[in-house]
Fold this protein.
Amino acid sequence: MINMQDKTLTCRDCNREFVFTIGEQEFFAQKGFTNEPSRCPECRATRKASGGSSGGYSSGGGYERREREMFPAVCAQCGKDTQVPFQPSGDRPVYCSDCFSAQRSSSGGGYERRSSGGGRDRY
């Protein structure tokens, strides 16, 4: 067994030093945690009480999902008014969901995405 000793660590939030005790180290090892705590017990308690929220997180634990902004467009194939989740630039055709599905299924099942190198990746 490894000979453990209390460790003095610095909190990432308040920059105060705190002791990571032998008992805490044994608990962390038992749970399979490999990282040492980065916050002191007070900052951990404060973070836990606030639901772990910090920039963009909801109190439920995940990212908050914003309503997707939709933009008006006219389908290039059937002429129907539609809404799309991007601002049409006018240099490429825009399709309603029905025509888009038909277009996609007739092109072999995959779709193309422009890669950062200017070419196209096939999926």
